Amino acid sequence: MKDAKKDSEMVWDQIQMRSPSGNPLVLGHSTRPIPKLMVWLILFVSVTYVVYTLKLLTASVHHTSDDFPFTLSTRTGITSPPSILNQTAETTSPLLRHRDVREKLAVAVQMPNKPKPTEIQDIVFGVAASSKLWQQRKEYIKIWYKPNKMRGVVWLDDRVKYSPEDKQTLPPVRVSSDTSNFAYTNRQGHRSAIRISRIVTETLRLKMDNVRWFVMGDDDTVFITDNLIRILRKYDHTQYYYIGSLSESHIQNIFFSYGMAYGGGGFAISYPLAKALAKMQDRCIQRYPGLYGSDDRMQACMAELGVPLTKELGFHQYDVYGNLFGLLAAHPVTPLVSLHHLDVVEPIFPNVTRVEALQRLMLPVKLDSAGIMQQSICYDKSKSWTISVSWGFAVQIFRGIFSPREIEMPSRTFLNWYRRADYTAYAFNTRPVSRNPCQKPFVFYMSKVGMDSELNQTVSEYERHRVPHPPCRWKMANPGALEMVIVNKKPDPHLWDRSPRRNCCRVMESKEPGTMVVNVGVCKDGEVSEV
Description:
Elements (H helix, E strand, L loop, with lengths): L1 H15 L17 H34 L3 H6 L5 H10 L2 H17 L12 E6 L5 H11 L6 E6 L7 H6 L3 E3 L16 H6 L1 H6 L8 E6 L3 E2 L1 H8 L9 E3 L5 H6 L11 E4 H16 L7 H12 L4 E2 L8 E3 L2 H5 L8 E2 L14 H14 L7 E6 L4 E6 L3 E6 L4 H4 L6 E3 L25 E11 L4 E8 L19 E6 L14 E5 L6 E7 L10
Parallel strand pairs: 1-2, 1-4, 2-3, 6-8, 17-19
Antiparallel strand pairs: 4-7, 5-10, 6-7, 9-14, 11-12, 12-13, 13-15, 15-16, 16-17, 18-19
Helix pairs in contact: 2-4, 2-5, 6-15, 12-13
InterPro entries: DUF604
Protein name: Beta-1,3-N-acetylglucosaminyltransferase lunatic fringe
Keywords: Glycosyltransferase, Transferase
């Protein structure tokens, strides 16, 4: 009996010594504490990991909020305060919170803080002027310069009378620094070219605030400042840019350079480039004593800096004589930025002074500066007429059908800068005024312009220029029966935000005898200048 009880106890002990899986358990005082220590160690590591992860995620959220304060408002429409972020961290799983942080960072990267576009206050004008011509030419500056909106300096060779009225209508005037220590050996030129070439540098040294561009011009240069801004907005003002255009004279460009901006037509230099120029220009000028003028000295220094000319065709030097009509009536498809040599050419409108003509031009500029001088070509099929509209300036009506390829060429109403040169000496294509007496255009100049607020469109009137026309035997309607052309056009301030293209024009029905009505605007889908 005792043996049977002993055997059963031994069997029971063996069962207790096995784990549920059937494996024998090892007994001993040293092995019992190990499972408890392992459990506590695992719990400690896990809690530490969770706490550290929560702190890291919370710090990331705050960092995102500080660096990109607009991110939350972009996604939700309101700016979330830090307390809401903390609440989210407490009620959301770490995985969701981590994904949310990544999304916020992605939105912030996709929406960088873009610099504001260039405005007129970011530009400083440097105007080269002569004390001898100041009283006459300051009237040109008054046409385009607005002292309450613009910044600039007129640099003179000597002191001039500066009246209280001048202070209200002109930039401040300064006398250029002495340049007598610079060598000048060109026998055909004048050493004033040295002082004019340093105007950008001298203007920079005035240390004006928040300058992006320096724009150079002469006292007989007129700027269309809205279009100047449109041009400069295309370029990064933090980079080196030298922007301008060439002469109309091929001989001038050959003699000076096809890589040189002509200062009369105006050119723009970015602020960083002006700083680099100021550091080396005096040394540069000393290396070129034989150059003729200021523009070639400027270009020589640009070449040493390694900066090429960025050409913009809207800057006009107008190295021509005579009548600018042919050039203005076929302006290239680019914004009109400047006009120069206004004392040399005839007034752009007939029977008025030069200043009065430019003041008239500024009337349509105020209504639609982007469209000023832009050419449109269309046809009156019933009368077999070709019509060319240079908005804000003039309308031409030709007997017969001319292709746009021909009409977009400037007609030679002007003479070359070198009087012995013929039409082959221009740096662009031209055409004769007429090849046949019947093809001489009937010209209508802009006389009045206004705004129709109900239709949101400009209404400009063009009166016929009364000059003799040669007799014509062609059996077709005579444009001489017209007295006026009325052009309707909606203002298009974003014209140059799109790819360059001429506007289209359409001849409309007119109820008034002796009047033609033309509509000018963006070309419709499939619209082409064809008969």
